[in-house]
TrEMBL record:
Record PANTHER family: CELL DIVISION PROTEIN FTSX (PTHR47755:SF1)
InterPro entries xrefs: ABC3_permease_C, FtsX, FtsX_actino, FtsX_ECD
Subcellular locations according to the entry: Cell membrane
Name of the protein in question: Cell division protein FtsX
Source organism, top-level taxon: Bacteria
Species annotation: Actinotalea soli
Keyword Lyase belongs to the record: no
Family the entry assigns: Belongs to the ABC-4 integral membrane protein family. FtsX subfamily.
Amino acid sequence: MRLQFILSEIGIGLRRNLSMAVSVILVTFVSLTFVGAAGLLQLQIGEMKDDWYDQVEVTIYLCPQDSDVPTCAGGQISDEQTEALREELDSPAMADYVEAAYYESQEEAYDAFQERFADEWWAQGLTPDQMQASFRVALVDPSQYQVVADQFTGRQGVEDVRDPRAVVEPLILVMNRLSLVAAGIAGIMLLAAVLLITTTIRLSAMSRRRETGIMRLVGASNLFIQLPFMLEGAIAATIGAVMAVAGLWFGMRYLVEDWLAQSVQFIPYVGTDEVWMIAPVLVAVAIALAAISSVVTLSRYTKV
């Protein structure tokens, strides 16, 4: 009997404040979509870091014949200089930083270049003499790149020391900033959702003050009186959360997995599995919004 009464009260409240309930659903949907997008973006950044940093190789470019870099004033690197660099990379002093070092000759660099750009007409006119020999250095810890760079930068016979992170990190920085923007918008929308849920519950409570007064006179507890109002906000917020999860799933499924992942294939993408991973968090946030709004409102507007 009590359950039937509570359900009927919820139905009455939602019908009386239908437009406000729809507004709560839409605001919750938009705000939690931004929350979910910020979370997925952080997961994407983590995925990219794990994948790319594992593949990071420092490249030590050796002096070619005609370089204007001061360390290449003596012309092309000599065999003795190359061997000295190889021995230092393999030395115990570098063992904590260098996992492995591979020498790539001009001929090997030419073969790799031709294999990669075999279909490009402009690549056909190059010769092995125009390529650059290098050492490819795999690191024990990619974050220790600067130690290796400082060790070999400015050495005679070394033209340049490069790390792919110089390309990766600006992209990650942009994505981090986008994530912060999404989180900021989400915060504003969540505040709007709390205010709107509070207003909805307040209007519902005020419109039924006579009923709540009668319930209190016959001995109904505070929880029994307040529960229908709390559930109204929770139901509306949960529907918004479910819509946000569905929107994120469709976005990941059709925009990321079916389109972006096929167009740009060198990036490891998060997918729909990650949406299901953050879905409970979004639902929990929606319920928390309703709970906070209920606590703020009901203690005042259900008093008789």
